[in-house]
Amino acid sequence: MSGKQTTGKKRKERHNFDYVLLTVVLFLVGFGLLMIYSTSSYEAGIDYGDSAFFLKKQAGSTLLGFVLMVVISRIPYSFWKRWDALAFLGSAALILLVLSPLGISRNGATRWLNLGFITMQPAEVAKIGVIIYEASIITKLGKSLRTPKGLAVVLVPPAVLALMLWQITNNMSSAIIVFGIAMAMLFVAVPDYKHFVALGAIGIVGVVGIVWVTVASDAGGNFRMQRIRAWLDPESYSTDRAFQTLQALYAIGSGGIWGKGLGQSMQKRGFLPESQNDMIFSIICEELGLFGAIAVIFLFIVLIWCCMVIANNTVDLFGALLVVGVMAHYAIQVILNIAVVTNTIPNTGISLPFISYGGTSVLFLLAEIGLVLNVSKTVRNS
């Protein structure tokens, strides 16, 4: 009798924990839809004659994402272990398809595919693809992971995907995220941290060197060098490279502590380009103030904490690594987005998970939540 009571208690604890994760996701998605409408209604009404144009498109993708989340949450996560090669090759194939007639160009970048029934970004597929690949390969390698050959098997494919995203789709931010996910998963799997400290030091020196060369060189150079100059001295590039960044900073500064009120942003009225996309956090700050910004950051912290607890208590390494990969994806993308909006790092197009406008993004973000929910069914309850 006591055994049945214990089992029932464990199930109740597990389900209660699932509810915390789901509640946070629902809050983020619902808040995202609200902010997309608030941010895009003015320009959507002018450009499309429908103030809810972007909201309707995002709501459709979100509904499909929830269906996908439920389906994946019911598939035993061990199923994905056998598809590591397909996860990598499929992601690479979709990136290459951007070069075909199926590729779509927007705002000077070719990053999308028109598959007829859906328009998608291969970068979003690559993010979940690298999570599945890394979790499976690291688990299969075991102790040989620490050998040069093992490390090559783990790091070369994600590096290839990152390089393809950078060079083919001109999407450096997604390339950083894909390789960052791989490094985070490897960091968790390998307890010897001195190599990562060395890599981090090399990375910092490399970044400082690039910035120094950019500052020391004459005006001109490629557009990435110009972005670095605009980051260092935005006022000097206020009419071109730094225009969006400065408008975002104006929005953040004018919001104060409590904000102007929902729907009362001025920057979204044609001053801040594509405000419903990468710069939506600045409109949150303008309309809801510092209080709203902190509330959003707190929700992401709770989401990441939920993933961390699930990963720590999962019964096997593969499940734990899947959750670590999802956690790393969310953490890296949130940090980079907020850093770009606040001009902490040079401007590079990157969305705020669950909140920025983007159908493919929300679709695969919810699919990843489905993975986490399925893994959470096996957590140990003390």
What overall form do the CA principal axes indicate? globular
Order of SSEs: HHHEEEHHHHHHHHH
Number of helices: 12
* Main sheet record: 3 strands, antiparallel
Compute the gyration radius: what is it? 21 Å
Relative strand content = under 5%
Number of domains: 1
Number of strands: 3
Measured distance between first and last alpha carbons? 19 Å
Folded structure, characterized:
There is one protein chain. By secondary structure, the protein is mainly alpha-helical. It has one domain (2-376). 69% of the residues lie in helices and 3% in strands. The chain is built from 12 helices and 3 strands. It has helices at residues 2-48, 53-73, 84-97, 122-141, 148-168, 172-189, 194-216, 223-232, 243-255, 280-313, 317-341, 359-376; strands at residues 103-106, 109-114, 119-120. Strands 1-2-3 form a 3-stranded antiparallel beta sheet. The longest helix has 47 residues, at 2-48. The radius of gyration is 21 Å and the shape is globular.
